[in-house]
Design brief:
Belongs to the sulfatase family. One of its GO terms (cellular component) is actin cytoskeleton. Its cofactor is Ca(2+). The protein has 578 residues and is an alpha/beta fold. 27% of the residues lie in helices and 14% in strands. It is built from twelve helices and 18 strands. The strands form four sheets. A ten-stranded mixed beta sheet has the order 9-8-5-4-10-1-11-12-2-13, with helices on both faces. Strands 15-16-17-18 form a four-stranded antiparallel beta sheet, covered by helices on one side. Helix 1 runs parallel beside helix 5 and helix 5 packs parallel to helix 6.
Amino acid sequence: MRAGGLLAGFSVFSLFTYGYLAWDAVGDRESADRTAGLEKEREAEGPSSPSPSPPHLVFILADDQGFRDVGYHGSEIRTPTLDRLAAEGVKLENYYVQPMCTPSRSQLITGRYQIHTGLQHSVIRPTQPNCLPLDNATLPQKLKEAGYSTHMVGKWHLGFYRRECMPTQRGFDTFFGSLLGSGDYYTHYKCDSPRMCGYDLYENDNAAWDHDNGVYSTQMYTQRVQQILASHNPRRPLFLYIAYQAVHSPLQAPGKYYEHYRTINNINRRRYAAMLACLDEAVSNVTLALKRYGYYNNSIIIYSSDNGGQPTAGGNNWPLRGSKGTYWEGGIRAVGFVHSPLLKNKGSVCNELIHITDWFPTLITLAEGQIDEDIQLDGYDVWETISEGRRSPRMDILHNIDPIYTKAKNGSWAAGFGIWNTAIQSAIRVNHWKLLTGNPGYSDWVPPQSFSNIGPSRWHNERVSWTAGKTVWLFNITADPYERMDLSSRYPDVVKQLLRRLSQFNKTAVPVRYPPKDPRSNPNFNGGVWGPWFREEDKGKKKKKPNKNKAGNREKKKKTKKKPNRRKGHPFNCFAGR
C-alpha cells in the first residue's frame, strides 16, 4: 500500500469504525423498544410448549483463513474470541473443506461432492453462465421446510447469471452481500479484467446502492447480522449464514487493527493480521448480539474456513504442506469448531473425520427437518460425533476428481496399474490413507519465519525435490499429517485399493460445467452492476430466415469476406449433466 494512500485512508477508516461502534450505541437505546415489542408478540402466541424448540443455527464461514492463523494453533495473530469460543466448545482437528471458494460453498449448501454437481473444476467466474445446479436441493430450502427463517449475509460465489441462481431463489428469505468471489472491502467494486468492472453489493435481488457508503465489509456485514437478530423473534427458529469476505485478498483493513502488528515486517502478513483481528472482533459482536437478543442459550455456532491460506497473500498453514488451491493438507484441512450451550462434551477436541458436506444432513437433523430419500447425499450426520464424542460415521472423503485440470505430463494408465489414469488430478482419503494423483499443486511447507521479509521468501521455505515422472503419492495422514513420507512405493496394494475407490466414485460423476465467458455479463450492459444477465427470452430467440432470393445471396457472398465461425459456449442453464 502506498504511504500517501495509507495515511489518507486512516482518517476515512476511523470514520467508518466510529459508525460501526455508533450502531451498537443506537442498538442499545433501541433494544428495550424492540424487546417490548417481541414480548407482546410472544404473549399473543399463548403459553410456550414444554418441548424445546429447534435450535438457532449460525454458520460463520471465513474466507482463506490459514490452518495456523488462529491463536490456538500457535499463531502470532491474536484471535481471543475464536480461541475462547473454541475452548468452550468442540475443536474440530480432523476437519476438511475444499481447496477453493466455490467448491466448499457448493458442498456446504448441497451436502454433495463436486463430481455430483458438475462443479469439479476451479471456481465460478463472474463472466461464466454457470451456477449451482438448480435441481439440487439446498440447505436453506430444507430448513425453510422445517419452519426456519433463513438469512444470508456475505459472499455468495455460487453463480448469478440468471435470477433463479440468486440466494433468495435458493432458499434464503433475505440476502445482503456480494455475488462474486472477491472485491474491494470499501467500495464493493470488482474488476474481472480491463473495462469489465462493476459494483457488487446486493440487498436481496437488487444492487444495494443505499449502502454504498465506504463501510468496511466485515463491519458492515456484522451490522446487518445485528439488525437481523434485533428484529427477529428468538422463539422462532433461525438459520443465519454469515460468509465473511475476510481474510481473502485484496488485503485491506481499518487502521486501528494494525496496532498490535507493527513489528511484522512482511506487509502482506501485517495487513492479513489486521484483517483477521477485525474478523475476530466481528465474531465477538455476533456472539454478543446472540446473547443480547435472547438466542444464545438455544443456538449452535459453527465456525469454519472455506479453504487453506494463501502464503503470497499473508496466510499460513504451517506445519501443513501446500496452500489454497491444492489438495495437500494445507489447502483442505481447515480451522473449525462448534460452540453451543447444547453441546454435551464442552471444552473438548474432536479428532474424528469430518467434511464440509456433513453440515447439510447434520443441520437438517438438528432442525427436525426431512431429507428426501431420493437425495443422494455425500455428507453424514455428525452431531453425536461432535457433541458426545462418538465415532464418526465417515470413513472416507473424495477430495475431488478434476478431469480438465492441467494433466500431469508423466501420468498414465500404466502408472495407475491400469485402474486409473494418473495424469488426472484427484485426491481421496480412506481411513488413515490419503492418495493423490496428477498435479496436486504447489507443495512447499511455509514456516512462520518465511514472513520475516517481503516474500514469503522461498529461501525460508522447505522446497520439495521431485522425483522425475512422479504422479502418485500415498500418505498415512494419521501418522504423518504433514505429508513428509510418501509411501506409494512401499504399499502398492494400498495404492491399488484407493485407485479402485477413485474409479468407483468417477462412475457416479456428472459432466463438468465450466462454460466459456459470456460477453453479456459485462456490468457496463447492466447499469454498472454485476448481476444476472441471462433472460429467458434469449433462449427462445430464433435465427433469421435466409433470403429467398438465392441469386441475390450468391452475389452477396461474392462481395463479402467469409466470417470465421464463433465458438459456441455451453447452453445457458444450470442443470447438472447438460
